[in-house]
Each structure stands twice: as structure tokens, then as C-alpha cells.
Amino acid sequence: QVQLVESGGGLVQAGGSLRLSCEVSGSIDRFPSLGWSRQTPGKQRELVATISSGGMTTYGDSVKGRFTISRDNAKNTVYLQMNSLKPEDTAVYYCKAENLYRYSYWGQGTQVTVSS
Questions:
Q1: Burial class (CB within 10 angstroms; exposed 0-12, middle 13-18, buried 19+) of 80
Q2: What is the separation of C-alpha 115 from the centre of its chain, rounded to a whole number of angstroms?
Q3: How far apart are CA 42 and CA 35, in angstroms?
Q4: What percent of the chain clears pLDDT 70, i.e. is strictly above it?
Q5: How do beta strands 57-59 and 67-72 pair?
Q6: Buried b vs exposed e over 21-58: b needs ≥16 C-beta within 10 Å?
Q7: Which of 17, 31, 48, 108 is 20 to 30 A from 8 via CA?
Q8: How many CB atoms lie within 10 A of CB 100?
Q9: E-strand spans in the chain?
Q10: In Å, how far are 30, 90, 97, 104 from 101, measured between CA atoms?
Q11: Which residues have C-beta within 8 Å of that of residue 104, sequence separation ≥ 6?
Q12: What distances in angstroms separate CA 46 from CA 20, 36, 73, 93, one per listed residue?
């Protein structure tokens, strides 16, 4: 059973920063891709960032240059550093781990609220 537990969400003013963490049960080496997505009520889940086992990263257009995804294999944790936050970044952020069969495991989500 794979469990992903996010933390680090909260309330921040526009222009501020937050760092989200996602601790994965067991070794994250077995997941070729880890990532973060976000969702607001009434909208589809939006891809924010991914990172491969080799460290290659991708970002959604709306967060490029502001967000940075990273992974610490020793701690089985993936991070999302969010800088220059905007009110439109307000969402529930979900951590994802994708295995070799392209099956995705999801965390329970953490709320990020950016006030103007």
C-alpha cells in the first residue's frame, strides 16, 4: 500500500512563498515520475510540476519561473517550492507518484490560499 502525505500548505499573502512536502511510504526510487497537481472547485485538476527519477523537471506554463520541484531520495520526499505566489495559485495541491505501469498514487491534498 503506497501512501503519500502532503504538508506545508497554508495562508500566505501575494508575493510570498511556501514549500510543500510530500512524504512517500517506501522508496521513491521505484517511481519513474513524481509530481504535483492542483485543483480549485469546479475546475479540472491542473498539472503543476513533475520530476523524473533522473531529475528532469517539467512545469505548467502558469508556474514556470516561480515554482521549483525537487526530490530527496534519502528522505523519500518530493518538494514544491513556491515563490512569488499569486491569488490565482489558491487551490488544493496534490502530490502524485506514478509507477512503471503508469498507475498514479495520490495524496490527500493540502490547501494553499494566497490573499491579495
A1: buried
A2: 20
A3: 22
A4: 100
A5: unpaired
A6: bbbbeeebeebebbbbbbeeeeeeeeebbbbeeeeeee
A7: 31
A8: 9
A9: 4-7, 10-13, 18-24, 33-39, 46-52, 57-59, 67-72, 77-82, 91-98, 104-106, 110-115
A10: 11, 31, 11, 9
A11: 96, 97, 98
A12: 16, 9, 25, 9
> What is the Cα 25 distance to its own chain's centre?
16
12-46 pLDDT, tens digit per residue, is 999 999 999 999 998 898 999 999 999 999 999 99
Cell of 108: 490527500
**Whole-angstrom distance, CA of residue 116 vs CA of residue 113:** 10
Q: Residue 106 and residue 37: Cα distance in Å, rounded?
A: 10
